[in-house]
Design a protein that fits this description.
It contains three helices and no strands. With 124 residues, the chain is mainly α. Helix 1 packs antiparallel against helix 3. The longest helix is centred in the first third of the chain and has 65 residues, at 3-67. It starts with a helix and ends with a helix.
């Protein structure tokens, strides 16, 4: 192998390496974007699962209070206090349910944003 052939081969190799660098960087950027999108989706799914579990626990507690109000000690002690405490519990339940409705709307809005983001990425 002559010196010219060696120089030509090295030059070609260097040129190929330099020419492919933008494509490699673009691939890394795209991979990073996909990874971040997946992490956002996993986080949203985990938050939604936590809210579903919280909603289930609250629903079970409310059902227990409705089904067996006598198991609640203050109701047995004094009817006047029981009425006040029952009203306070009812107000608390209403606030929790309203908050759950708001959070569900927030999660649906987040899911829509994520879906829109994926659609926009697919178009570009």
């Amino acid at each position: 192998m002559t010196l010219d052939q060696t120089t030509s081969g090295t030059s070609t190799s260097n040129l190929t390496s330099v020419a492919s660098q933008p494509a490699n960087l673009a691939n890394l950027a795209y991979t990073n974007a996909i990874l971040n999108t997946n992490l956002v989706q996993l986080n949203a799914a985990a938050n939604q699962q936590a809210m579903n579990q919280l909603g289930l626990a609250i629903t079970a507690n409310v059902a227990n209070l409705i089904a067996a109000p006598s198991s609640f000690d203050p109701i047995q002690v004094n009817d006047n206090k029981a009425t006040i405490k029952s009203k306070a519990i009812e107000d608390d339940i209403k606030r929790v349910v309203q908050r759950l409705i708001v959070l569900r709307g927030d999660l649906e809005a987040l899911a829509t944003k994520i879906d829109d983001g994926q659609a926009n990425q697919g178009e570009s």
